[in-house]
């Protein structure tokens, strides 16, 4: 592990934020060099436990785009052979809502929509789902699974109070494990319905783990319960939400991420679903649709590691801009977003009702969690750097 001394926090030219993206010096042990570039911007091959800059060359992208076109053509040719073409995960967010619209109105296909309630969905996401289903007349082509809530509650309680890494943030750890369970439930739904495909509406920047497709082998491994210590706490009936060791890997459905290869423009996505009345204006913002757990985990990481974990993902969005002018504009906008988001956490005004619901469900309080965070942070060799970054963020002195 890299240990950064307090005197090393600011580079010789005074930058405490990467001049090409939005990552702060010292956050998750990242450094900014004398040219004002963070490790990721200075070295495309740099890998951090929380993020790696995935390089997708033109050849691979073309290969996957061709595969996607073949998949859609094949599904269209077989349209009518079965009631549905695939299982599509429907969260009520902007991307999954737009993907439903694309399948129905552009591809003229009929996916079976699956929403999985972890027990911590926002009311906005719930209302988006109901509104879209009614508007598109898809209420009979959708299932709402809420019987898995206990397994997610047990998972969150375990992870929030047993996370002891000095290098890997809690938000990503929770999202990865939770996502694997959600995707496994979708896979099992697909198997039960005899469908060959599961569609996930990950955006183009969500490629830290898989690009376009999760292989059947990875789908199998991701579908097993983990971490091992958590598995030991599970009851026999709770294992039903996971895959079993004896399942035939080659018979698992393909899990695809269409937005990794098809045209994607966030503004177009939001404009389209709002203009069609699928969601109301402003209700597609991830801030209001992301589950309550993510927001609590972001608070955890801010106090524990000195930054907003989403900065890693947003930084990649900045890097993907093709011109310097676009990068400058995106950098400024996203840096402001992160600072304002941090301010709501410091003031205790972020998602107050959702936070209260979360703490009540897992049987603890915000104060108890903050004590646990402080205990872990004080053991971190980079504690002073974390505290200094927190002060910079509070005073909005990032530059």
Indicate the mean pLDDT.
Answer: 91
Q: Give the % helix.
A: 40-55%
Could you give the distance between the termini?
A: 26 Å
| Helix and strand pattern | HEEHEHEHEHHEEHHEHHHHHHHH
Tally of helical segments: 16
- The third-level CATH topology of the largest domain is Rossmann fold
> Stretches where pLDDT falls below 50 for ≥5 residues?
none
CATH superfamily of the largest domain: HUPs
Total tally of structural domains: 2
Would you identify the CATH architecture of the largest domain?
A: 3-Layer(aba) Sandwich
Globally, the shape reads: globular
Task: Please explain how this structure is put together.
The protein has 399 residues and is an alpha/beta fold. The protein has two domains: 6-55 and 299-394, no CATH class; 58-275, Rossmann fold, CATH 3.40.50. Helix content is 49%, strand content 6%. The chain has a six-stranded mixed β-sheet with strand order 5-4-3-6-8-7. It has a two-stranded antiparallel ribbon with strand order 1-2. Strand 4, helix 4 and strand 5 form a beta-alpha-beta unit. The two termini are 26 Å apart.
How is this structure best summarized?
By secondary structure, this protein is of the alpha/beta class.
Question: Which helices and strands occur, and which strands form pairs?
Answer:
Blueprint: H1 39-42, E1 47-48, E2 51-52, H2 58-77, E3 87-89, H3 94-106, E4 112-116, H4 123-135, E5 142-145, H5 149-162, H6 170-192, E6 197-199, E7 213-214, H7 216-222, H8 228-231, E8 254-256, H9 266-275, H10 286-289, H11 292-305, H12 310-319, H13 324-347, H14 352-362, H15 366-378, H16 383-394
Parallel strand pairs: 3-4, 3-6, 4-5, 6-8
Antiparallel strand pairs: 1-2, 7-8
Helix pairs in contact: 3-9, 5-6, 6-11, 11-14, 11-15, 11-16, 12-13
């Amino acid at each position: 592990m890299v240990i950064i001394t307090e005197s090393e926090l600011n580079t010789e030219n005074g930058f405490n934020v990467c001049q090409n993206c939005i990552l702060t010096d010292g956050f998750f042990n990242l450094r900014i060099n004398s040219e004002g570039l963070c490790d990721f911007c200075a070295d495309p091959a740099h890998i951090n436990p929380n993020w790696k800059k995935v390089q997708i060359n033109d050849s691979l992208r073309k290969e996957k785009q061709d595969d996607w076109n073949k998949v859609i053509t094949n599904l269209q040719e077989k349209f009518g052979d079965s009631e549905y073409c695939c299982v599509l995960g429907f969260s009520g967010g902007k991307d999954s809502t737009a993907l439903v619209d694309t399948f129905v109105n552009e591809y003229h296909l009929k996916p079976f929509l699956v929403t999985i309630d972890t027990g911590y969905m926002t009311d906005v996401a719930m209302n988006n789902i109901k509104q879209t289903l009614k508007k598109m007349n898809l209420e009979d082509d959708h299932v709402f699974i809420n019987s898995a809530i206990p397994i997610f509650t047990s998972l969150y309680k375990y992870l929030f109070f047993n996370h002891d890494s000095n290098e890997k943030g809690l938000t990503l750890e929770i999202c990865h494990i939770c996502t694997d369970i959600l995707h496994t439930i979708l896979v099992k739904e697909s198997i039960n319905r005899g469908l060959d495909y599961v569609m996930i509406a990950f955006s183009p920047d969500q490629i830290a783990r898989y690009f376009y497709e999760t292989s059947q082998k990875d789908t199998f491994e991701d579908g097993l319960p983990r971490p091992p210590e958590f598995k030991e706490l599970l009851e026999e009936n709770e294992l039903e939400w996971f895959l079993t060791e004896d399942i035939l890997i080659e018979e698992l459905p393909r899990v695809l991420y269409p937005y990794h290869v098809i045209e994607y423009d966030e503004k177009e996505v939001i404009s389209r679903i709002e203009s069609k009345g699928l969601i109301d204006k402003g209700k597609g913002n991830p801030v209001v649709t992301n589950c309550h757990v993510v927001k609590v985990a972001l608070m955890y990481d801010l106090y524990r590691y000195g930054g907003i974990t989403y900065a890693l993902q947003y930084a990649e969005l900045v890097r993907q801009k093709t011109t310097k002018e676009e990068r400058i504009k995106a950098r400024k906008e996203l840096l402001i977003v992160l600072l304002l988001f941090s301010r709501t956490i410091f003031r205790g005004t972020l998602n107050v009702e959702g936070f209260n619901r979360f703490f009540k469900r897992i049987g603890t309080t915000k104060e108890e969690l903050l004590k646990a965070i402080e205990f872990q942070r004080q053991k971190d060799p980079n504690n002073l750097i974390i505290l200094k970054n927190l002060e910079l963020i509070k005073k909005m002195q990032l530059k």
